[in-house]
TrEMBL record:
It comes from the Bacteria. The keyword Signal applies. Keywords: Lipoprotein, Signal. The keyword Signal applies. PANTHER family: BLL4220 PROTEIN. Pfam families: Lipoprotein_15. NCBIfam families: SCO0930_lipo. This is SCO0930 family lipoprotein. It comes from Streptomyces cinereospinus. Residues 1-25 form the signal peptide.
Length: 323
């Protein structure tokens, strides 16, 4: 079910957009000559896991010892059950209590897996053999799909089912949100989620305090080399591969965000970038996420290059040196 935030229109009137854009003084025909500054990782790589995990597939050759992967890959699902998770709500688990996952790059209609090779090592496919529906699971949603190697993989409402090699104990959900493509399964085959987030909202981080997050729960950042008034971007080209822009989010699809800004008409507007990409701003400050944040709650982009910082709901950077 979608929350009330989702009921709002995603398109503002042309007159309103033009007025707000002018107020921010953005110049879509110019940009800062300094680009990609601070987009490289600090010594030691991006956070604890680095970018060895492919953001698109979630593959990680170092996910777990080979023996552990082999055991996880060979284990039958047995009787499926439903486990209550404090953060994710109802989660589908196998007979051993291990969390089961789905992959956004797979398809359910028709069922098809796109996780092979190293991906299938980090995310072992769950065999269809012996899988049965326990309490709270509808047997009608269980099925199977033939993998390229000829084996039969369990499906739930058409979605191929996997375990995550880094989940070592019953109830672990370390695979949730990895690469922005892997999610724990709800009993009906949808993505497990206790509450659907609005397009932009805030959370209280134990290290950084109140910070902005996107609709997937990922931390939102600002780049101190961008210009606020007039709006200009210093992150283009390859920089955007590490720091994807936050796409426009309707004001009614937010919670806890300062929509007014420090000056009237300089609040929550869309930036028409010189490269043709539309980017959401807070107080005329362009917003980004970080490719090195593998899952919701990660803050691996904080302080990168001394120029990238998590952003507060009023647009202020968290922990940035005084200008």
């Amino acid at each position: 079910m979608k929350t009330s935030w989702r009921s709002a229109s995603l398109v503002a009137s042309a007159a309103a957009v033009l007025a707000l854009t002018t107020a921010c003084g953005q110049d879509s025909g110019t940009q800062s000559a300094s680009q990609n500054v601070g987009a490289t990782a600090p010594a030691g790589g991006y956070g604890s896991t680095g970018l060895g995990t492919d953001a698109g597939t979630g593959t990680d050759a170092g996910a777990a010892p080979g023996e552990q992967n082999a055991v996880a890959a060979a284990a039958a699902a047995g009787e499926l059950s439903v486990t209550a998770d404090a953060e994710l709500g109802q989660v589908l688990t196998d007979s051993a209590g291990r969390t089961l996952y789905r992959f956004d790059q797979d398809t359910a209609e028709p069922p098809k897996t796109n996780c092979e090779g190293d991906c299938a090592t980090a995310w072992p496919p769950v065999p269809a053999d012996d899988a049965t529906a326990g309490e709270g699971v509808d047997a009608a949603v269980l099925g199977e799909v033939t993998r390229p190697d000829g084996s039969e993989q369990l499906t739930v409402d058409g979605w191929p089912v996997y375990r995550y090699a880094k989940d070592v104990a019953p109830g672990d959900t370390k695979g949730q949100g990895v690469g922005g493509t892997w999610y724990a399964l709800a009993p009906d085959g949808t993505k497990a989620a206790a509450e659907e987030l609005p397009g932009l909202s805030t959370r209280n981080d134990p290290e950084l305090g109140e910070i902005v997050i996107d609709g997937d729960g990922h931390t939102v950042y600002r780049f101190t080399k961008d210009s606020q008034w007039p709006m200009k971007t210093a992150c283009t080209g390859e920089c955007l591969e590490k720091w994807p822009v936050v796409a426009p989010v309707d004001a009614d699809d937010t919670k806890g965000i300062d929509l007014q800004g420090s000056t009237p008409n300089r609040g929550y507007v869309v930036f028409d970038r010189p490269d043709g990409i539309e980017q959401q701003t807070i107080d005329c400050i362009p917003l980004y996420t970080f490719a090195g944040d593998e899952k919701p709650g990660d803050i691996n982009g904080q302080g990168v290059g001394g120029t990238w910082f998590a952003i507060r709901p009023d647009g202020e950077p968290v922990g940035a040196p005084a200008q």
